[in-house]
Design goal:
The protein has 205 residues and is mainly alpha-helical. It is built from nine helices and no strands. The protein has one domain.
Length: 205
């Protein structure tokens, strides 16, 4: 995979990871309820669930492209519609949502379990990855390239939420985020809608 194409992949993965939603709420909840350790644990185990879905999507997309090109196109458009819906939802979220977690007691084991379940229990991740990875997967793609795609999705997802957990260990960070949540939601919404349009236009590179 060319480095410039990988940079596009990394940027889109980062945008997906940073979008407000149940995953962010999970990390916030465990960080505020148990401290840095449970927050980081939730982040890492969430990344494992994301990696599992990314792996399924990469291998599945390759087969669909070869055997059912029209079905692949339909799935891609459904994924693009989902990205656009996420963007509209983020634009309308205002200051509500994931930036208002409740403080509850938590442990490392609970954080690990919920981190995986939040990822695996969200089948909409498949739609997200279909829309995302359709830009990078080709029928003749090597196993190494597929592994790079999966690893990139995992590392960026886990890395972002680890940063969130570590940052929230400092008590002054959360009020700052809460105060600016509407701007975070608006920026995320615009970027997700732009990504949906990019998906409709066709593969990158």
């Amino acid at each position: 995979m060319p480095f410039t194409l990988w940079l596009s992949l990394a940027a889109i993965c980062a945008m997906g990871a940073m979008s407000p939603g149940p995953s962010l709420a999970l990390v916030l909840r465990h960080t505020l309820g148990g401290g840095r350790g449970p927050g980081v644990t939730a982040a890492l185990f969430h990344a494992l669930g994301v990696g599992f879905y990314a792996l399924l999507t990469v291998w599945g997309l390759g087969a669909v492209i070869v055997r059912f090109p029209l079905l692949f196109q339909l799935i891609t458009w459904v994924g693009a519609a989902y990205l656009a819906w996420l963007g509209i939802k983020a634009l309308r979220a205002g200051k509500a949502g994931a930036m208002q977690p409740g403080r509850v007691a938590t442990s490392g084991a609970q954080a690990a379990r919920e981190g995986v379940l939040v990822a695996l229990g969200n089948p909409k991740l498949i739609l997200f990855f279909v829309a995302l990875l359709s830009q990078f997967v080709s029928p003749d793609m090597s196993t190494t390239a597929k592994a790079i795609i999966v690893a990139t999705a995992m590392i960026i997802d886990g890395g972002w939420y680890v940063v969130v957990a570590v940052a929230l260990s400092h008590s002054r960070v959360l009020p700052w985020l809460q105060h600016r949540a509407h701007w975070i939601n608006r920026i995320t919404g615009v970027l997700l809608i732009a990504l949906a349009l990019r998906v409709v236009l066709g593969p990158l590179g």
